Amino acid sequence: MKRFHVHVGVADLDKSIAFYSSLFGAEPAVVKADYAKWMLDDPRINFAISMREDAAKGIEHLGVQVEDKAELAQVYDRLAAADRPVLEEGATTCCYAKSEKSWIADPDGVVWEAFLTEGESITYGGSPDFDRLASANAAPDACCAPSVVPAKTSCC
Fold it and tell me: N or C, which end of the chain has less CB nearby within 10 Å?
């Protein structure tokens, strides 16, 4: 069964953990010095926050987390059918987890990831170069054009 994923950049991790723990009525499943994650069943969501110097605050990206390779293949087929550039990251370490993942941006530049978590990691990991996912519909100098997450933004 798939799980919706949201990753939010925050300015104060402790205050945000307290807020989201109250909002969700649950403590995070994972807490690190710069990161926290809730794996909720009601609503079924993987909700993560991180406090990174070089990351924007607010929603960083959205995603679909799957439970097995068959579901991942289904979601990857959907990404390919969306007729948008797909960044196939493959096996990677991100957000203290080992994952298999790919990325896509919608026509307005909202970045989505599809991923299967395959284990824990002791490091936060890196971020892919999202430049290939820029929206072809948004002129670079347009007012209020959606921006693609910068390459230095944390992942999730």
Answer: N
Domains and CATH numbers, the chain: 3-133 (3.10.180.10)
For residue 108, how many other CB atoms are within 10 A of its CB?
10
Q: Which of 118-121's residues contact partners 24+ apart within 8 Å by CB, and which partners?
A: 118/91, 120/96, 121/93, 121/96, 121/97
pLDDT tens digits, 113-148:
899 999 988 987 877 777 767 544 333 432 222 334
Tokens standing for 49?
A: 């926050």
Rounded Cα gap, residues 90 and 103, in angstroms:
10
Query: Which candidate, 71, 144, 77, 69, places its Cα nearest to that of 104?
Result: 77
User: Is 34 in a helix, a strand, or coil?
Assistant: coil
Residue 99 CA to residue 115 CA, distance in Å, equals: 6
User: Mapping DSSP to helix (H, G, I), strand (E, B) and coil, where does residue 156 land?
Assistant: coil
Q: What is the pLDDT of residues 32-54, one digit of tens each?
A: 999 999 999 988 999 999 998 77
Instruction: Please give the backbone phi and psi of residue 32, each rounded to the nearest 5 degrees, phi first.
Output: -125, 175
